[in-house]
Amino acid sequence: MKKFLAFLLVAAMVLTLVACGGGTTTEDPAADTTADGAKVVLLLSAAGTLDDGAFNTACYAGVKEYCEANNLTYNYYQPTEDTVEAQLAQCDVAVAAGAEFIIINSDQFKLSSVYMENNYPDVTFIIYDTVPTDESGNTVVNSNLKAITFAEEQCAYIAGYAAVKDGYTKLGYFGGMPVPAVVRFGYGYVEGINQACEDLGIDKVDVWYTYF
C-alpha cells in the first residue's frame, strides 16, 4: 500500500508539470485494459478524455506501468456527465467488478468522493488536485482516502519569471479549463512575469491568456 501511494505521489507530481456511456466503452489509445476484475481503477471526469495528452494520459500511463510491473489488473471508468449520481454509479460498477484502489480525477469529484469514501471503507481512494468537500463546504478525508494537492502557482511563477529573464516579451497561457488547479497555475505564471518585469525594469510584456 505504501509503495503504491508513493508511486502515485510521484506520478501526480508529473501531472502538475503536464498541466494540469458509462463504464469502459472508450478504448485506451495507449494500452489494453481489463474490463472486469480490475483491482486498480482510474475514474475520469466526463469533461475530459483519456487521450488528452495531459494529466489524464499521464495518470493512466502511471497506473498501467505500476500494475503491469506488479501483476495487477487495471481499468478506467468515465461517467457520461459530471453529476454526483453518474459519478457514484461508475464507482459502484468499479467496486462491484473488484476494484480495491480507485484514483479519482480532479475537482469535478470533490462532492461525490465524500460518498465514495464513506460508502466503501474497505476501498482505498486517491484523489488529486482537490479534496473531498460535502454540501456544507466541509472537508471530509477518511483514513481510506489520500488527497493530493499542489502549489501549482509556484512552478508556474518560476516559468513566467524565467521566460521574461530569457528575453521573451510576447507570452501566452492556455489552460485546459478554468478549474481551481489550472487557474492557480495561470495566476502564478502571470505573477512571475510581473515580478520579472519589475526586477528587470521592463515596461511592457504582452500576455495572451485563455482557456480551451
Radius of gyration using CA atoms only: 19 Å
For the biggest β-sheet, the strand order reads: 2-1-3-4-5
How would the global form be characterised? elongated
The number of distinct β-strands equals: 7
Give a brief description.
With 212 residues, this protein is an alpha/beta fold. It has helices spanning 2-18, 55-69, 84-96, 112-119, 152-165, 180-200, and strands at 40-43, 74-77, 101-105, 124-128, 145-148, 170-175, 206-211. It has a five-stranded parallel sheet with strand order 2-1-3-4-5, with helices on both faces. Strands 6-7 form a two-stranded parallel sheet.
Describe this structure in words.
- It is a single chain.
- The protein is an alpha/beta fold.
- Helices cover 42% and strands 16% of the residues.
- It has six helices and seven strands, in the order H-E-H-E-H-E-H-E-E-H-E-H-E.
- The chain has helices spanning 2-18, 55-69, 84-96, 112-119, 152-165, 180-200, and strands at 40-43, 74-77, 101-105, 124-128, 145-148, 170-175, 206-211.
- The strands form two sheets. It has a five-stranded parallel β-sheet with strand order 2-1-3-4-5, with helices on both faces.
- Strand 6 (170-175), helix 6 and strand 7 (206-211) form a beta-alpha-beta unit.
- Helix 1 (2-18) packs antiparallel against helix 2 and helix 5 runs parallel beside helix 6.
- The protein is elongated, with a radius of gyration of 19 Å.
- The model is unreliable at 1-34 (pLDDT under 50).
